[in-house]
């Protein structure tokens, strides 16, 4: 497998379970990934969410994408460190792609809209056939 396989799988299954840490307590939540490409995995959130403070204190995350099938399905697990993207043009693109965000009062110019990506890290796929085999790590 290659990183392009990870990008394809994530875009086809964009709901991810994202794990952060608050103190010594793991925190997990489902999120809709914005998109993935050769530069990484992109997400958006808002400053009113506790997750933003968690990411600012410790940017190391792990997230998992899942595709069910008739057996147990396939999972893609990705770990890395977030990079905050405070760029008005990127925020304008998020708002164009996800107009429902404006209903929360989020704007491209305001600090409340938070965009981040994971551009470096490692990933691996899991399915029933690979269940007890050593992980095939994909570095990106």
Task: Provide structural commentary.
- The chain has 140 residues and is α+β, with helices and mostly antiparallel strands.
- It has a single domain (3-117), classed as Roll (Pnp Oxidase, Chain A), CATH 2.30.110.
- It is 20% helix and 44% strand.
- The protein is built from 3 helices and 8 strands; from the N terminus they run H-E-E-E-E-H-E-E-H-E-E.
- The protein has helices at 3-12, 50-57, 88-97; strands at residues 15-22, 25-32, 35-37, 40-46, 60-67, 74-84, 113-127, 138-139.
- Strands 1, 2, 3, 4, 5, 6, 7 and 8 form an 8-stranded antiparallel β-sheet that branches.
- Strand 1 and strand 2 (25-32) form a beta hairpin.
- The relative contact order is 0.21.
- Residues 7-96 form the Pyridoxamine 5'-phosphate oxidase N-terminal domain.
- InterPro entries: Pyridox_Oxase_N, Split_barrel_FMN-bd, Stress-Dev_Protein.
Please summarize the sheet with the most strands. 8 strands, antiparallel
How much helix is in the residues?
A: 10-25%
| Derived structural class | alpha+beta
Uncertain parts:
none
The residue-averaged pLDDT reads 96
Residue fraction in strands = 35-45%
Could you tell me the radius of gyration in angstroms? Answer: 16 Å
Q: Per CATH, which architecture?
A: Roll
Strand runs, count = 8
Q: Write out the CATH superfamily name.
A: Electron Transport, Fmn-binding Protein, Chain A
CATH topology: Pnp Oxidase, Chain A
Shape: globular
Give the assembly state of these chains.
single chain
| SSE sequence, one letter per element | HEEEEHEEHEE
CATH level 1 name: Mainly Beta
Number of helices: 3
Domain Pyridoxamine 5'-phosphate oxidase N-terminal: 7-96
Pfam families: PNPOx_N (PF01243)
InterPro entries: Pyridox_Oxase_N, Split_barrel_FMN-bd, Stress-Dev_Protein
Protein name: Pyridoxamine 5'-phosphate oxidase family protein
